[in-house]
Amino acid sequence: MFFSLFTALALITSVNAHFRLLYPEPRGPFVADNEPNFCGGYNNAVNNRSTFPLSGGFFTIKSGHPGWTAGVIISTVQNPNSFDNFSVNGEQQIVGAYAKSDDAGTFCMPLDISAAKIDGVKDGANVTIQIVFAGGDGNLYQCADLTLSSNFTVPSNVVCANETAAPHGSETSGGASPSQTAGALGAAHVFAGYVALLLGFIGAATLLA
Ligand SMILES: *[C@@H]1O[C@H](CO)[C@@H](O)[C@H](O)[C@H]1NC(C)=O
Ligand SMILES: *[C@@H]1O[C@H](CO)[C@@H](O)[C@H](O)[C@H]1NC(C)=O
Ligand SMILES: *[C@@H]1O[C@H](CO)[C@@H](O)[C@H](O)[C@H]1NC(C)=O
Ligand SMILES: *[C@@H]1O[C@H](CO)[C@@H](O)[C@H](O)[C@H]1NC(C)=O
Ligand SMILES: *[C@@H]1O[C@H](CO)[C@@H](O)[C@H](O)[C@H]1NC(C)=O
């Protein structure tokens, strides 16, 4: 009986920890149960890639779970189908600063792909980004297949703003209204060394998982 209660709680927790990649468009429709797998369960790149800015882009996620950390790794392989394809010489190709928040909600993070100075990242290149999301019960993944463009700007109907929300499944009535924080994009919030350390930790957790 103890065991089944624990199992039930664990299931609730894992449901709460899911996240969605809202922009750019992920490889395929969201399947919650597959999110702990490589690219959220989609092993192959799509043919209709999204055009994405070579520099000055952003990505947006929705987390129903408070207390999360997210980072982005990139592959320049045409059809990356393994975590190995996101590393070169055993080193994970990390792009951008990691992001974290104590809140649940919708979050938009700067994603300046060219700033990471990764080999093969240039105008016209096909790349895949993989969002690595750590919400407390193992890593979750979503991928987007992109073609980079130096003259593309994100359409203005794609809004980049943060909005916190009550954690998914919480029953707090009359809760605080969502707070809106439209911050400046492109600002480096953290030291690069710290970023590498943290994503290194996420990477290690991947290997252990
Ligand atoms: C990028 O990928 C598309 C299919 O997704 C392909 O048609 C095109 O040739 C690729 N471009 C390069 C530069 O590899
Ligand atoms: C690619 O095609 C699929 C299937 O038609 C569609 O659902 C998806 O929105 C398309 N993706 C992009 C980035 O246009
Ligand atoms: C992608 O990863 C697979 C599996 O590890 C490997 O066999 C393949 O050579 C990699 N592709 C490239 C282009 O590095
Ligand atoms: C952007 O660049 C590509 C190739 O580099 C070109 O084909 C396209 O016309 C350009 N688009 C705009 C809006 O300038
Ligand atoms: C949204 O919140 C994340 C996480 O705290 C932060 O990294 C990002 O810069 C914020 N974005 C905006 C547009 O304020």
TrEMBL record:
The keyword Chloroplast does not apply. The lineage of its organism: Eukaryota, Fungi, Dikarya, Basidiomycota, Agaricomycotina. It is found in: Cell membrane. Keywords: Cell membrane, Glycoprotein, GPI-anchor, Lipoprotein, Membrane, Signal, Transmembrane, Transmembrane helix. It comes from Tricholomella constricta. Its main location: membrane. This is Copper acquisition factor BIM1-like domain-containing protein. It holds the Pfam family BIM1-like_dom. Residues 16-164 form the Copper acquisition factor BIM1-like domain. The chain crosses the membrane at residues 187-208. It comes from the Eukaryota. One of its GO terms (cellular component) is side of membrane. It is a lipid-anchor; GPI-anchor. Residues 1-17 form the signal peptide.
